[in-house]
Amino acid sequence: MNYTGRMEELTGSAARVAEELRRLGLAGEVREMPESTRSAQEAAAAIGCDVAQIVKSLVFRAAERDDPVLVLVPGSVRVDEAKLADAVGEPVDQATGKFVRDKTGFAIGGVAPVGHSQPVAAYMDEGLLSHEVVWAAAGTPRSVFPIDPHDLQRVTKAKVTDLASPA
C-alpha cells in the first residue's frame, strides 16, 4: 500500500486526511468511492470486505471535561458505553453532530481517525487487531483508506481495550 494517492483529485477533508497520512509516513491510498461509505455496511459492500474490517470512528464526549473521545471499533460491533466510560475514567455521552464537527473538523459519517483539528484521546477495540488490513473513513461519507490496524493504533496513540457490547 502506498499513499501516493491522487492528491490533485482529492479535495477538502479527504485531501487533508491523505496529507496527514503522508506526513505520518503511512502507506496506502485514500479512495473516493462512487457510493456512500457512511455506514459500516455500506463501506464493506463498496470495498468488498467483511464488515468487521471496517473501522467505525465514533466520537463521544467525556461528560465531566467536555472533551472529545475517539472510539475505533470494528463495523460489526456496538460500543459498550460502560466499558468506554471505565477506560476513559469518567462518564461518556454520544456526541452531537455540532460537537463532532467543532472538535474534530469532520462531519458524522466521515470522521477519520487522523487529521483532526485538535488532539483527541483515542480508544481502540482489540478486535481490530485481528485483521491484516482494516478500512477507515478518510474525512467524507464516500472516502476510505486501508491501513494495518497496528499502524492505526500507533498513529492515533489509541489505548487498546475491549469496547464491544455483549451480543
Order of helices and strands: HEHEEHEHEEEHE
Q: Given the structure, what is the number of helices?
A: 5
Multimerization state? single chain
Largest sheet: 8 strands, mixed
CATH architecture: Alpha-Beta Complex
Classify the secondary structure makeup into a structural class: alpha/beta
Q: Averaged pLDDT, please?
A: 90
What best-fitting shape do the alpha-carbon axes yield? globular
How many domains, in number, for the residues?
1
Structure description:
The protein has helices spanning 12-23, 40-47, 81-88, 97-104, 149-156, and strands at 31-32, 54-62, 67-74, 92-94, 121-125, 134-137, 143-147, 159-161. With 167 residues, it is an alpha/beta fold. Strands 1, 2, 3, 4, 5, 6, 7 and 8 form an eight-stranded mixed beta sheet that branches. The protein is globular, with a radius of gyration of 15 Å. The relative contact order is 0.23.
